[in-house]
Amino acid sequence: MRSIIMPRLLSPHELATLLLLMHAPAQVEGGNPYLEALRSESLVEVVAFTANADEKNQYRLTAEGNAVLRRLGAV
Q: Within a 10 A sphere around the Cβ of 65, how many other Cβ atoms?
């Protein structure tokens, strides 16, 4: 298994967002300020981008995001 080195610690809110994506991805709002930080760390990705303001983008954990949660014992 390849080693993943985190360049920085995740905030409690970012960890909570990862857990929410794991258990209830439909509950994650596109306006969540932590999504962009998690995307920049390659822990989250957009699966469905919607241009319509009435619809929400859909997000999911990447393999790296799942690995972080596994290391924390959340999976």
A: 22
